[in-house]
Here is the input.
Amino acid sequence: MNESQRAFLDDLLETPSPSGFETRGQAIWTEYVSEFVDEVRTDDYGNAVAVHEGATDAPSIALTGHADEIGFVVRDVSEEGFVNLGSIGGADKTVSRGQHVTIHADGESVPGVIGQAAIHLRDDHETADIAEQHVDIGAEDGDEARELVEVGDPITIASTVEELHGTRLAARGMDNRIGTWAAAEGLRRASEADVDATVYAVSTVQEEVGLQGARMVGFDLAPDAAIVVDVTHATDEPATPGTRSNGIELGEGPVVTRGGASHPVLVDAMRTTADTTEIPIQLQATGSRTGTDADAFFTQRGGIPSLNLGLPNRYMHTPVEVIDTEDLDALAELLGTFAERVDVDTSFAVDI
Here is the structure.
């Protein structure tokens, strides 16, 4: 990726965007894509859609990722001045304690830490549930704390983007800033090639709390096909239990999923695109669900042919998610090339 593309990725990763509070991240995304598309629009909940207008008789395809990340929320403020936590999405109780966090209060950011009693003082080593954890913002009492934050303020872990060795990158929120980045970059390639298809890049909201934005956008756009980009587990590291290994590795290319919502015609078309362009891919079986926005898109409007396209990601739902940027570049190239191959004669219907 070039300097501008990398800056865009860093901006997305460094901008807090917990489910239900995605507007800051969506503003960055819409500003970036507006430079190379025919139209950008948002709906009342903040889903963002950028459009390359193709030929009137060619199919339309949506390249999608979700803008939101997991996090926490201010559930209550104690009389002692501590902030009691609730979860936004699948927050992991085993990695939250002892972390620096930011409470995104109205108009300002309030720093804090999630408290952890010293190992010398603990009688057991069981990890407390999120609802039993607290944030210390340094307040003297509840009145002082409530002047700074209020119930319902979102909270994110205060981590930054770190370059590891080679092409590996670590950050909070790879899930799923990489998806919105890839959708934008795939659309940019399609726009530059002036493809026949009408191509939408979509940045959805509230995936982590039930695929909500995808249900809204899928119904509204009704594209002929939807390619849903999200992270998938890379199990090539020693923390993964052996029984949960899926064979997916960092640096071996994007992941085409088979089964569930992933439409067989799109699976074959994506594999053919990868073979033709010599883009390495990996395959993954999904069973009944993908766990991504594809599960929402494919049942809209009587059925939208959909495909879950994954990016290998280590340590998902932690503050130190790790990807390989070469996989991400290949993913964007695969999306753009796929869009180029769609023409007026393309059909995504199964042959029975």
